[in-house]
Amino acid sequence: MVAIESRGRRKTYFFPVAPNRTATGTNVPKSQPSTGGKGEDETNVSKSRPFPGGKGGDGTAAEPARHKPDLVMKPDKRTQFFNLPVFYEDPWTDYEKGIEIFPKRHTSLCRHRRNREDLVHIQQLKACTATESLINAVGRYSHPSFLRLLCCYHYDQSTFLVWEPVELSLAQVIGSKYSIREAELTSIVWPIIQGIRYLRDSSRALGSLTYDTIFLTSSGGVKIADVDRSCVIDTEDMNAATLKLFALSDMITGLRKQMSPMDPWSPRAQNLPARLMSTPLDDLFGDDDLVAESKGGELKMLVNILSKISHYDVKFP
Q1: pLDDT band, residue 114 (cuts 50/70/90)
Q2: Over the stretch 181-219, which tens digit does the pLDDT of each residue have?
Q3: Which of 131, 163, 195 is the last residue of a domain?
Q4: Considering the domain boundaries, does residue 17 fall inside one?
Q5: Model confidence, pTM
């Protein structure tokens, strides 16, 4: 169920979230009492456009009056709604474009013109019904393992998706000479397995899973992209292949080639690709070795090192 509310040139999408499920990764500020004659069940959520790294406690930064869309959250008897700001104007009035950092995704590194410390990734797509469905899917299926969409712009027959910034893709890791430690491997694999199970519990599966759709953040987080291209799947069709555990197994086999001979993985870690193909998904969550090794912070050194040796000639005016 998707409700749409128009505000002149701006529009706010409302996406349903299960009542007992937290919409982690969304930019929803704390609710405040509504004013201005709105119904008792309607709450004002935000009076400013979201910027990652803003000075506000909720991740937002104040803007001039012309940039203050009226965003509201409307509780429903069955579901809880969160919103995604959508703007009908030129995004380059707000952002400066650097370079196309992920060419295969038509995604550029950009900086906000007023809050110049705020970096985002902007992906340009052709405006069409499929793009609208993409936005709806990203909003409906939110999880800490999924790349977070901050807002979007519609302008001149194009849609511009403003994503949280990431440092590099797993493709850049596999293309480097970095020696991957066992703890780093499990820190990559565990969030992906969590995201796969989240989608499976929603009767969906990833459309694809490759090195180019897995990203690492500056804090060492792991993010899955292209969740919007996930598809509905019947219970009887769910297996290791359709849930993309086979694809994950192949990716780990590739990463295993970068195992350091001076610090080899344990036999259990080296056997992880076979376990992913033969072990039921829920049983993987009972794997104490896998869970214990996937604590946060293990990927920070990997990200810092590869970011330093990846030379991007980023120039802003």
Answers
A1: very high
A2: 998 998 999 999 999 999 999 999 999 999 999 999 988
A3: 163
A4: yes
A5: 0.71
